[in-house]
Request: fold
Amino acid sequence: MENVYSALMQALQLTIVVAGAPLLTGWVRTLKCWMQGRRTAGLLQPYRDLARLFSKDIVLAENASWIFRFAPYVVFGATLMAGAVIPLISFDLPLGATADIIALVALFATARFFLALAAMDTGTAFGGMGSSREMTVASLAEPAMLMSIFTVSLASQSTSLSQMAHVITSTPLVLRPSLAFALLAFILIAVAETGRVPVDNPATHLELTMIHEAMILEYSGRHLALIEWAGMMKLLLFSSIGIACFFPWGISGHGDPLMLPPAFVILAAKLALIGIFIVLVETGLAKMRLFRVPEFLGSAFLLATLGMLSFFILE
Amino acid sequence: MQSPLDLSIASVIVLLCASAAAPLLSSKQKHLVTFTFAASAFASLLAFAGGLSALYGGAAESVKLLIGLPDLPFYLRLDPLSGFFIMVVAALGFCVSIYSIGYVRSFIGRRSVTPLAVFYCLFMAGMLLVLLSDDAYSFMVSWELMALSSFLLVCFEDERPQNRKAAFIYLLIAHIGAILILLSFGLLAGNAAGFTDFSGYTFQAMRESGISGGWASAAFLLGFFGFAAKAGVVPLHAWLPEAHPAAPSNVSALMSGAMLKTAVYGMARLSFDLLPVSAWWWGGLVLTLGLISALMGVLYALMQHDLKRLLAYHSVENIGIILIGLGLAMIFTSFNMPLMAALALTAGLYHTLNHAMFKGLLFMGSGAVLHATGQRNMEGMGGLIHRMPWTAPLFLVGCLSISALPPLNGFVSEWLTFQSFLLSPVLPSRLLNILIPLGAAMLALTGVLAAACFVKVFGVVFLGRWRGRHKTEVHEVGWSMRAGMGLTAFACIALGVFPTLMIDMMNSIPGAMLGVKLDVHRGLSWIWLAPVSAERASYSAPIALLGICAAIAAAYIVAHARKTAVRRAPAWDCGFEKMTSRMQYNATSFSMPIRRIFGFLFSIKEGARASGKHPSAFFPGKYTYTLRVRDRLWYFFYKPAADVSFWLARKAGKLQHGRIQIYLLYSFVTLIALLVFA
Amino acid sequence: MTVSFAAQINSVLAALILLASFGLLVQRRIYGLLHIFAWQGLLLSISAAVVGYSAGLHHLYISAALTLSLKVIALPYILYVLIHRLKIHREVEEVVRIPTTMLIGIALVVFSYHLTAPITELSDLVTRSTLAVALATIMLGLLMMITRKKAVTQIIGFLAMENGLFFAATSATYGMPLVVELGVALDILIAAFIFGIFFFQIRTTFDTLDLKAMERLKEEE
Reply:
């Protein structure tokens, strides 16, 4: 019985990740339209976009090899696997122990590796540009990410997401400067990893400012749909990692089906708030020059390190 | 049933016989190649069986040979640690030997391959003997056998001056290292039995001597730097990027994958077995140098566009990662925390095995590319995936492994290293608590930079369009080369997906060296890797792989639910017209952002020059970009050292007059001096 | 408010003061620097008040009020007027690159932690753990003075160092005697005025506030 329940939870979780991700993106886009005084295309536009892309024919670049055709599936697969691990509404995830947060970050790295390769595959100038920039930004984000993880794991003595969240919810609330710093650092990293303003602009197709978009310029049809979908899932998943590490209150515990509906509502509320936050940041800030990104991510590293230091010095 | 030690000795004998027999066949070069490399593959199998069973059995076994000098017999010993390293060397040796059958044939007709065959076998025998020796004398003899035979292999293609120079630098640094190791053994032996007789030269006597205090530190430092010179630890790494590209690719695979590991073996043997554990700063030193090597290695690698040089710098990086594991293990041991030390040691050793496999694979792959295109410069390559349908995916496996991506093997060992880093808060020293996490961040940076580097390598060499000026007919390599690469690629996947099988087997090493065994399952079943506790962290490669595959299958079904057509068209590229292959990103442009961010660590000279009929700044006929990246250590470390030694040599050179009477006077004065002081 | 809760708040404030010091190091705009400096003063005065409340030492309230009026209002205002009059709102020019400065800063924090660890073990005040932060703030202020080119940023670095001293006094010994504190405050105020006069002098002499110009003042060789 217990196994059936956990399997159900796992299925529910995957459904939320796969089906809910476009909704979060739609929410962000709608809010952005409101903020900028434009008419919206509706919350459901990302779904329509995906459906349209799936039904379109594919135009492959002449030089594209199997790497180019295979990469979208790997990107989608690795992201979905990461989605099976991060607790969204319940800790009852049989697959939850498959990867701790370090392995989780590495799963995203696998997806990124294949996407960067695919960008190099068509032999165009922009593809290489995107892949070079993406790998540069990723390599600067990673030390900060690890330091942030380290700081959080100092308090919870664990890198397993469920356990980290569990420790935070079950201990009495104390003021922890280390966690606050880690959170700030994590936000900066998540912005860089999900390719949002001010590091990258998901809406741009201006040649010289693209990072992520430059990599997927040559994609079309179902390949593009899979990559876009994976990108939406990544936004949802990074938000959920943040929620699980820093604001886990409301995720339902083991074998507690009654908590599910409230957990679902709380999750939706948290994600909606994150969407508002993203939109406020993206409307208020301009995209920064590529060579300011090292300073941006350097600040993230600094914050995470200060978090680690203040754990030892002050707590 | 033979004992593991017998199997290993048999393997060495087969290798020595093959090397002795090779010149007899030198008139029939094809048969020579098949015979020697088949023999070395067979010998590797024997050694592999021996090493594996020693590792599995967990007991030590030793023998005294009746060769050597009077009163100084050779002692051989096979315990789990040497068994593990023998297994690593033999596993790679087997794959490389099979690969060599095809690879070395390409030299036939251009030059005699007899020296290659002879010294290849001697080199393998030397490595195995180093791992088997149980006394300082036989260790140094086999160490020299290994160093000299590899030196002769590096200068195999000796018509190129840069190869001769590379071989010379290699020989020089190898011998500086050997002298340091010899001095370290001298200290240990002297401490074990005094300086009056030779009985202290066995490792057994050194183990029992109970050396301590300043002498132990001195012996450690001498030995560590001696082995570090062989392992290519920064700042003693200068020979590595010179020697590895100069050697034939099968030899580079062995040198990078196996020979560097003998230096790691030496460090582990010295610091966990021969010397008692004392100060934590030993581990701190190893950890710091490991971190610096890892980061500098990968940054240097990113700056390269010579494929084999790039891979050689990655060896510096990976040796650094291995040293991080060893250093953490030493720190934990010094604070008397054997369980955590066992985890860190296992992480380092597992990375040793993994590095042997993926670096062997990558060097063999680079050999295949070299074989197919005739060049090592990546800027002239591109699109090889269309012409080399076997080599490309195999090379990709190597790239994924070395970039530490799940579910391949490089990730497992890096994950274990991170787990040992995460245990550092339990150390009782507050300063270490704060400093060690910064090391973890450096390791994370290294990992992603390695990934960036291999996107560059695979992207520039195999993807895109041909960048060279001339059309070259590129062809796939033969079956034996594919088989050699395929075996190592299979090992990378197997070690990545089923890491627990190997790690369980490796448990006998911490058992023998630290007295504890590691439980990596913590009550979960064998597919889970949970080295500390299930709550703390867990990773399951089989499930991750299955999950990704299932997700890919699901995505495939969903994406193909509606029939859509696929058609080929010129690349869009934002609507730019007349794309030429020279507009692609190449190795230099790919690493430009990283070069700019980390440029202060190098000495970089960049220049752009307009030329052509009417060179003007606005409409240049042709624009030439030049870039020279140099190692700052050359100026700060090597060049002063070389200048000093040249200066000394000139001073000493004044003794040479060419007059026979003066030379006789020197001998006479020496004789008198000896008679006075003796 | 219990003692442990006060200590928690004080830790958070210490962390924020440290963050502000790093903010001063990485900030490129001069007005941004002034804002961060004012925030640091505010945090400092809150911290003094909290320590005063939890330890029952009422003279700390006076120091808190003094800090508030001087470092949050008066000094930033004076500097603001100076910058406005001298028309220097361009970006801060640094001698050492900002990421490198950050790494040096982290190393300084680790170093000051290592330095104060023995003292912290001897003390039994609730605020003892913040001593490392205070020392780090002093060092970061000095680092800022070293790595910047323009005179104004150096003044801010100097004032940040003084903030560190004040914080050290509150956290190590529950504040200096009131007389000393009043004297220091007056000194700072006068220093600010003198700096102001100097700025005008430097600019009329060299036509710039870049301290590089002062290198010309040495004797010809």
In short: The interface with chain A takes residues 8-9, 11-12, 14-16, 18-19, 22, 26, 98-99, 102, 105-106, 109-110, 113, 129-130, 132-133 of chain C (CB under 8 Å). The radius of gyration of chain C is 18 Å.
